[in-house]
């Protein structure tokens, strides 16, 4: 008979003794755990962020869009006080994503998050995340997070379609195209992105491994494009990051198997390295969606491998 062990729950305060000093600081360094459970690429940038005379546990952004993300933590059951704090912090930071983390949620507080998701606009999202820790025998504890409240995307879409500024046909087709493309990408390359929902715009993003740059899959005026976009708020930082990767252009072109375009965009703050589809393509041509998705994935496979090798090489030079 196979000898199996059991997964045991560890009290959260045995793992994180203090909310601010232990759990919040751990979350700041391990944003990927939260990103996995909420299904988006996010970067937590600061703890104890001042909001008026108060301190927000964590603030960050969604990679690629720059949308603000805030997180409020508890190491005990949810209470009215923290619900009020979340509203206060949201009013002072104008976030698109609000996350409340606690070991257990009262039914009333879960219902409150559901109500907020139903009543707010399509760009505002509230998540409730139950936090726990587990171990097997004497192993090190591991985090185990679970969603207990999340946006009802169908409801959000209905609100958008019936609002004063309804989505256009193109926006809805973009949303459908990108969402299906992300599903296929996660099936084939689950390490590329945590995002589960597409966008209504002409592009989606995925992480590169740097806070100043990210991959973008884009429909330009001339057709589909895969690019590495250096788009931080610091133009000089973007330029230096671009030059470090572009210094490996010969190797990138060789690894990719064809010439890649390098655009420093000297009159703009951003820079990009990209590959365009020679045959063009329009998201509005529904009959071509299959071949366009195949092109995005196959091109990204080669482009990502080439630029990731260049990133590693550039970082080894710096160190």
UniProtKB/TrEMBL annotation:
Domain of life of the organism encoding this protein: Bacteria
Residues of the DUF4268 domain: 173-308
Protein name, as recorded: DUF4268 domain-containing protein
Provenance organism: Nocardioides massiliensis
Lineage, opening ranks: Bacteria, Bacillati, Actinomycetota, Actinomycetes, Propionibacteriales
